[in-house]
């Protein structure tokens, strides 16, 4: 039996910030005991905050390590290790590696990289190289004729927990400002049929396997309603306030990127995460492309003009993403939950700093 006691004046639970000692037994939180000081033998974290380990349901960060420069790919296992180290040092103990089945990014053929990176994650994990838990979020571009060829071999992979529907046709969603050439109307109609077929197939697969299904970059009320009808339970990065409002009305959880909030707006001119937060249209914060941004974004929500309570703000990067993806054993500092914990040094108005990171009751960073 492994037992550890950790004290802090600022333990962030689901509904309060309390002075308490946490008893961890065999990697699980056994008890949270209100106290004003540490007991004999306990780790005393003083005025540093204790929060749950972060749960990141959307990150492109692995691709950046696999191809650190355009045209230059790196060793795939080394890329996974570097990505893992960056995530765990940012307090992310559960990371959904969000891999695309289609497309090109800075010269990287994502379809070719997809199986390579999945194999690299397995290789790194089997050799004990990884400190965070790695889960797969497969991003399904519905315009891709070969979508099912890439997806079907992974359906029985136990790491797969989430699928998202993407549609990057000109005039759609993120590309809604691009005009469609009337000369290719017939081709566009055929592509629309393919997209509809793929949406239905992915919806059926998600329901069968119990995957979380997210709608990516929806821009209109109609698109959100369609996504909800297909079984999407998450609106991932809605690009307009109208889409976010409809997602809320449809009882979908709303996820936005932390860099958007920290920077003060979307880099591509879409809905500001800050505006969503002020309108009570923000449930989950993801790292998107900067792992360290999650912690900063959560604490930023406690400041003006938002004024959220710290438990509510921290939930956007812990309990809310865990709950939305059916990970019922993490995301809270509570009895019976995994002892995935982050020690954070923070003063209001300043950047929060992860001092140490624990996963399953063991310090990993």
Brief overview, please?
This protein is an alpha/beta fold and 365 residues long. It has 12 helices and 18 strands. 32% of the residues lie in helices and 27% in strands.
Would you give an account of this structure?
- This protein is an alpha/beta fold and 365 residues long.
- The protein has one domain (53-330): Metal-dependent hydrolases (TIM Barrel), CATH 3.20.20.140.
- Helix content is 32%, strand content 27%.
- It has helices at residues 61-66, 76-89, 110-126, 147-151, 185-209, 221-229, 241-249, 258-263, 273-278, 293-300, 310-315, 319-324, and strands at residues 3-12, 17-25, 28-34, 43-44, 49-52, 54-59, 92-100, 104-105, 108-109, 133-141, 160-166, 212-216, 234-236, 253-257, 284-286, 341-345, 353-359, 362-363.
- Strand 12 (212-216), helix 6 (221-229) and strand 13 (234-236) form a beta-alpha-beta unit.
- Helix 2 packs across helix 3 and helix 6 packs parallel to helix 7.
- The longest helix has 25 residues, at 185-209.
- The protein starts with a strand and ends with a strand.
- The model has no long low-confidence stretch (mean pLDDT 94).
């Amino acid at each position: 039996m492994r037992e550890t006691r950790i004290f802090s004046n600022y333990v962030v639970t689901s509904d309060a910030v309390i002075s308490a000692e946490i008893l961890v037994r065999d990697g699980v939180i056994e008890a949270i005991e209100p106290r004003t000081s540490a007991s004999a033998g306990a780790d005393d974290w003083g005025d540093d905050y204790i929060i749950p380990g972060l749960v990141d349901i959307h990150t492109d960060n692995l691709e950046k390590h696999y191809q650190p420069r355009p045209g230059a790919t790196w060793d795939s296992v080394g890329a996974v290790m570097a990505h893992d180290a960056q995530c765990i040092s940012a307090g992310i103990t559960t990371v959904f590696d969000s891999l695309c089945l289609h497309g090109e990014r800075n010269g990287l053929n994502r379809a070719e990289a997809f199986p390579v990176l999945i194999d690299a994650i397995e290789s790194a994990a089997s050799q004990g190289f990884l400190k965070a838990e790695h889960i797969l979020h497969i991003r399904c571009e519905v315009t891709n004729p070969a979508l099912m060829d890439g997806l079907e071999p992974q359906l029985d992979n136990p790491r797969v927990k989430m699928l998202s529907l993407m549609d990057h046709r000109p005039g759609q969603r993120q590309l809604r400002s691009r005009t469609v050439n009337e000369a290719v109307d017939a081709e566009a109609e055929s592509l629309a049929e393919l997209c509809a077929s793929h949406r239905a197939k992915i919806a059926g697969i998600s329901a069968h396997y119990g995957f979380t299904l997210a709608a990516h970059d929806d821009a209109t009320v109609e698109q959100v309603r369609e996504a909800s009808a297909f079984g999407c339970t998450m609106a991932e990065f809605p690009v307009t306030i109208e889409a976010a409002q409809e997602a809320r009305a449809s009882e979908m959880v709303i996820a936005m990127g932390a860099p958007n909030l920290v920077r003060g707006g979307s880099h591509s001119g879409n809905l500001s995460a800050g505006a969503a937060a002020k309108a009570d249209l923000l449930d989950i914060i993801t790292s998107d492309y900067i792992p360290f941004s999650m912690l900063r974004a959560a604490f930023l929500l406690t400041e003006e003009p938002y004024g959220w309570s710290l438990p509510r703000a921290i939930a956007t990067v812990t309990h809310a993403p865990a709950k939305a993806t059916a990970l019922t054993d993490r995301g809270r500092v509570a009895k019976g939950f995994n002892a995935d914990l982050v020690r954070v040094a923070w003063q209001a108005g300043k950047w929060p700093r992860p001092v140490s990171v624990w996963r399953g009751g063991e310090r990993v960073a």
